[in-house]
């Protein structure tokens, strides 16, 4: 009789243990990390940390979440950031990592000369060299991440074009090279690495971008979030593609006088190109 009671008690203890472990496993959340530049940070929003695309993705799928993106960062800066102890800890525990990087490689790499070459001279050499360096850096970035976390799903975002007019045409050329490099890299490194095509989603210059004409607005962040959610759903890592917005994004406001010079610069370069082309033909 005592043996039967003991056996029954043992079974109850084992059942309780299994139920507790099962409950714990169900309660464990995936950890979602955003790395990169001002796009990942949400610089087009006054309340970036509460309303950027990363927050929307995390809130929708119930992920634990960290955002280690830094405005102004290039691929070189991200490489340095991956030496930071707290960032490495986030990378180690991440199940999903979104990376938005590359735009500042152009913006901080002598942009006036780049635009002059593209618009006036029709020369793409500088843009191609910038992208080649980006490609090499991207390989090192992914290698660093994989060295501490070989299993995380990595989502690489393509780069959008926020500009219109002659500047927009030049941007489209440069960004086209960069997005081709991203797709090439993903094709050559398919293990756990996927592309989220943000470029095709942000196509409304008036609504998708904030007052600075560079960063995604609240509407733009929402579009990026949906693109990420759809990819995660496709990969079986998220149940919903219908975004949950707990905090409405508030767009930054930038006076027109601060954004107009870039458009004017593009127009001036176009006029210069009309003069330069015949001269180049005569000189050449």
Strand and helix map with partners:
Elements: H1 2-27, E1 31-36, H2 38-41, H3 48-51, H4 53-61, E2 64-67, H5 75-81, H6 85-93, E3 96-100, H7 103-107, H8 111-121, H9 125-148, E4 153-157, H10 165-188, E5 193-196, H11 218-234, H12 256-283
In short:
The chain is α/β, with parallel strands linked by helices and 284 residues long. It has helices at 2-27, 38-41, 48-51, 53-61, 75-81, 85-93, 103-107, 111-121, 125-148, 165-188, 218-234, 256-283, and strands spanning 31-36, 64-67, 96-100, 153-157, 193-196. The protein has one domain (28-283): SGNH hydrolase (Rossmann fold).
The helix count comes to 12
CATH class: Alpha Beta
CATH topology: Rossmann fold
What portion of residues belong to β-strands? Answer: 5-15%
Taken in chain order, the helices and strands follow as HEHHHEHHEHHHEHEHH
- For the record, the count of structural domains works out to 1
What percentage of residues falls in helices of 4 or more residues?
55-70%
Strand order of the largest sheet: 2-1-3-4-5
Assign the structural class, choosing from mainly alpha, mainly beta, alpha/beta, alpha+beta, or little secondary structure: alpha/beta
> Can you summarize the main beta sheet?
5 strands, parallel
Low-confidence stretches: 1-26, 279-284
Terminal CA distance: 106 Å
Shape: globular
What average pLDDT do the residues reach?
87
CATH superfamily caption: SGNH hydrolase
Cα radius of gyration in angstroms: 24 Å
Number of strands: 5
- CATH architectural name: 3-Layer(aba) Sandwich
């Amino acid at each position: 009789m005592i043996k039967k009671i003991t056996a029954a008690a043992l079974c109850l203890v084992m059942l309780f243990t299994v139920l507790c472990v099962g409950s714990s496993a169900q309660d464990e959340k995936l950890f979602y990390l955003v790395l990169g530049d001002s796009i990942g940070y949400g610089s087009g929003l006054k309340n970036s940390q509460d309303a950027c695309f990363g927050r929307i993705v995390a809130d929708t799928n119930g992920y634990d979440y960290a955002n280690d993106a830094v405005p102004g960062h290039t691929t070189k800066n991200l490489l340095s950031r991956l030496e930071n102890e707290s960032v490495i800890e986030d990378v180690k525990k991440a199940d999903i990592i979104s990376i938005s990087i590359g735009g500042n490689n152009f913006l901080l790499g002598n942009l006036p000369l780049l635009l002059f070459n593209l618009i006036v001279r029709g020369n793409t050499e500088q843009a191609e060299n910038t992208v080649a360096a980006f490609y090499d850096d991207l390989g090192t970035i992914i290698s660093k991440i994989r060295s501490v976390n070989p299993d995380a799903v990595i989502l690489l975002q393509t780069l959008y074009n926020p500009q219109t007019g002659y500047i927009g045409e030049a941007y489209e050329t440069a960004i086209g090279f960069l997005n081709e490099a991203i797709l090439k890299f993903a094709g050559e490194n398919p293990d756990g690495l996927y592309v989220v095509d943000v470029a095709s989603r942000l196509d409304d210059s008036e609504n998708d971008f904030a007052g600075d004409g560079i960063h995604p607005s609240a509407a733009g962040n929402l579009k990026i979030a949906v693109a990420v959610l759809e990819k995660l759903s496709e990969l079986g890592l998220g149940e919903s593609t219908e975004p949950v917005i707990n905090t409405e994004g508030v767009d930054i406001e930038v006076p027109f006088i601060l954004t107009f010079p870039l458009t004017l610069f593009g127009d001036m370069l176009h006029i210069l190109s009309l003069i330069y082309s015949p001269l180049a033909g005569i000189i050449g």
